[in-house]
Design a protein that fits this description.
- It is built from four helices and 13 strands.
- It has about 240 residues and is mainly beta.
- The protein has one domain (about 1-80, about 85-230): Lipoxygenase-1.
- The chain has a seven-stranded mixed beta sheet with strand order 1-11-10-3-8-7-6, with helices on one face.
- It starts with a helix and ends in a 15-residue tail after the last helix.
């Protein structure tokens, strides 16, 4: 844990304004960490967001989704909002992982699955920010163990009952040590979406790549699982009040 605290002390410097970033876009969605020579040390993955004023909902009312067990794919939820209302949004950062030995799992605040950096899965979530503070939420991936990884899906989901991806300015930044931070901006006004697949990290014959996904779904983590064929078993989870 001392190592994680050391990384957190460097967070503002790494993700602060003025840092030269590589932004993945729809037209240029892929970058190779191996080609950049940044596959050593611990990569930081940061989620940061700020709220923006709400606008009148334009979507028709839909069935309200309930929990992680049986989400309905691309089915909108009802979201009545008044003009100029500022929403309190709780975005969470997580990762689905599949290791080379076939091990699969999730790292996320919900259910207190914070992972482990020193041991399998070599991924660790350091904290759960509930306000969009400047430091945001931070995930750590040990690139020294890259041969242990097959694929890692970085995702963001909305924990509370108010879907609000179109009410926030959110950005996920991957910062490999010694390289330019790589960012994916979640700028699409995906009204009613509850989850978003942000970036897919894949190990293809030793070449570690990062691909922008930016795919929004109206379900929970189980819907992302189905979309990417992870095959995990999901149930309703509760986030600890102290998380």
């Amino acid at each position: 844990m001392a190592g994680i605290r050391d990384f957190m002390r460097r967070t503002d410097q790494t993700f602060g304004p003025g840092v030269d970033r590589l932004t993945l876009t729809k037209g240029s969605p892929l970058v190779s960490l191996s080609d950049l020579g940044t596959v050593h040390g611990t990569m930081q993955v940061n989620l940061h967001w700020t709220a923006r004023e709400a606008e009148p909902a334009a979507r028709p009312a839909g069935e309200r989704l309930r929990g992680l067990l049986h989400p309905t794919l691309f089915r909108p939820m009802t979201m009545p909002q008044s003009v100029n209302q500022i929403l309190a949004v709780d975005l969470d950062l997580g990762a689905l992982y599949e290791l080379a030995d076939g091990t699969k799992g999730v790292v996320q605040p919900l259910g207190n699955f914070y992972g482990d950096l020193q041991h399998s899965p070599f991924i660790r979530l350091s904290r759960d920010d509930r306000s969009g503070a400047p430091s945001g939420e931070m995930l750590y991936i040990d690139l020294e163990k890259k041969d242990n990884f097959k694929r890692i899906l970085i995702f963001v989901y909305i924990y509370d009952e108010t879907p609000a991806f179109d009410r926030t300015h959110a950005v996920v930044t991957l910062a490999p040590p010694g390289g330019r931070p790589i960012e994916v901006r979640l700028e699409q006004r995906a009204t009613q979406a509850r989850s978003c697949a942000v970036a897919l990290i894949e190990n293809k014959g030793g070449n570690l790549t990062v691909r922008r996904e930016a795919k929004y779904v109206y379900g929970f983590q189980a819907e992302l699982d189905r979309l990417y064929g992870w095959g995990l078993q999901w149930q309703r989870g509760v986030k600890s009040p102290s998380a």
